[in-house]
Amino acid sequence: MAYSIAQLLTSNKTRLFDMWIQKQLASESLREDLMTDDELRAQSQELVDTLTSVITADNISHVESTDFDEVFEVLSAISMSRARQGFSPRETGLYIFSLKEAIFDLLQENLADDPATLLAESMKINRLMDSFGIITFETFIKGREDVILRQTEEIADISTPVIQVWDGILALPIIGTLDSSRTQVVMESLLQKIVDTGSGIAILDISGVPAVDSLVAQHLIKTVSATRLMGADCIISGIRPEIAQTVVHLGIDLSNIITKATLASALKHAFSMNRLVVKRSEAEKKVL
Amino acid sequence: MITTLSKDNVSITREQDVVPFRNRVKEQAVRIGMGLVNQTKLITAASELVRNMIRYAGQGEVRIEVVSKGREAGIRLIFSDNGPGIPDINLAMQDGYSTGKSLGLGLPGTRRLVNEFDIKSTVGQGTTVTILKWKNG
Ligand SMILES: Nc1ncnc2c1ncn2[C@@H]1O[C@H](COP(=O)(O)OP(=O)(O)OP(=O)(O)O)[C@@H](O)[C@H]1O
Ligand SMILES: [Mg+2]
After folding, report:
1. Residue B126 sits in which domain range?
2. Which residues does A112 contact at the CB level (< 8 Å), separation at least 6?
3. Do B51 and A215 touch (CB under 8 A)?
């Protein structure tokens, strides 16, 4: 009967686990700050157990075999959690590849006198472990993307504060790019606040918007129209000189929207619309 | 004669790629010392073309080049996609023409924002738009 590496692994799994842990503890990519020794052992034990329980002489050369689904699940969970915990891709990769090394060491111990079998078996395990490595990277990246996605949502939430600057006057500073989903959030919170406060004027400040292209412009125009439908007036402020020039060249018509260069001038305009006057007090005049 | 000093390829597959791509264009523009007004024009033009790419072709690729002609430096952007192509370029270049119920300002507006503009399109094969903005253009 042909030599079975699967059987070797299964019957030596405690030894394999020890060898792997030794390697990990000796490695410079060990992150005791991110994961305790116990956690590391538990995680590694689970992977070794799963691998040795599913691997057979037949499936070892068939990575795509559904037998390995369980291993993939464990691997995915490990690399997903590592991505969230802040491990680097390198550290996560080395984690899996050090298992490969441990397996190689074990093979060498057992097959020292049979180089031909050693080579053949090493090739098999190499291919298998490489595909485990790829899975690890794929899920690691996905884990990171999830983090980014969540942060993006959080940013969208916190970055649309509608501020009541005066009785009847709302201000909404927009920071960042105004894409479709962002516009939706902005519009909803603005319209809701108009209802809640009974405000008649809304100032959209775009000082923090890096570029106004036709899409952003369209979103602004839509927001202004929606505000008007609610019976409120809308002023767009924070139009920087470079933005003004770009908008003109692009050919966007903002002529029927009240626009102001600064939030201060928009506020002043809003005051005059509400027939409010800001006066310096008499007392202060005397001091001057 | 225009010489290319550096090249960088960015692939665009979705809406989320727009902002990082624009930042890369901006980085290059800042690197050659382009002023704020020209930077903003370039980034806005880039934004229009990349949005068209996503919207009408689904995806594509952009090459960002730093170029020079004599003492003048500039940024050249080449947007290529394998989308449906544009049947009538003259029509597409007109202000207000849109098959997407939009403002129809992207292409004609972009042409006004840059120094050189070239569009080639073959129906069923795709579209390539090349723009160039000089540092002091
Ligand atoms: N990469 C492309 N592939 C296929 N068709 C395109 C492409 N870019 C533009 N078009 C066509 O050209 C038309 C005009 O484009 P343009 O960017 O000027 O306007 P728009 O995208 O419709 O509106 P806006 O850019 O103002 O939101 C589009 O409606 C579309 O039919
Ligand atoms: Mg467009």
Report:
1. 3-134
2. A118
3. yes
- Polymer length in residues for chain B: 137
CATH of A163-282, one of 3.40.50.300, 1.10.260.40, 3.30.750.24, 2.60.40.1930: 3.30.750.24
Cβ contact A212–B15 (<8 Å):
no
What is the distance between the alpha carbons of residues A116 and A108, in angstroms, rounded to a whole number? Answer: 12
Minimum CA–CA partner of A221 in chain B: B103
Q: Which ligand is the nearest neighbour of the Cα of B94?
A: 1
* Number of domains chain B contains: 1
Kindly report the CATH number assigned to the domain that includes residue B59. Answer: 3.30.565.10
Decide: A137 and A94 in contact? Cβ < 8 Å. no
CA distances from A38 to A9, A95, A121 (A): 23, 16, 32
Beta bridge partners of residue B118, listed in sequence order: B130
- In tens, the pLDDT along A95-144 reads 899 999 999 999 999 988 999 989 988 998 999 999 999 988 888 888 88
CA closest to B47 among chain A residues: A213
Using left for φ > 0, alpha for ψ between -120 and 50, and beta otherwise, residue A113 falls in: alpha
Shortest distance between the Cα of B114 and any Cα of chain A, in A, equals 10
Contacts of A153 in chain B (CB under 8 A): none
Query: What is the dihedral sign for C-alpha A75, A77, A78, A83?
Result: positive
Q: What is the CATH number of domain A5-156?
A: 1.10.490.10
Which ipTM did the prediction report?
Answer: 0.89
- Which ligand sits closest to the CA of B99? 1
Task: List, by residue range, all CATH 3.30.750.24 domains of chain A.
Answer: 163-282
Interface test with A, best of B13, B19, B23, B40 (most A CBs within 10 A): B40
**pTM recorded for the entire structure:** 0.70
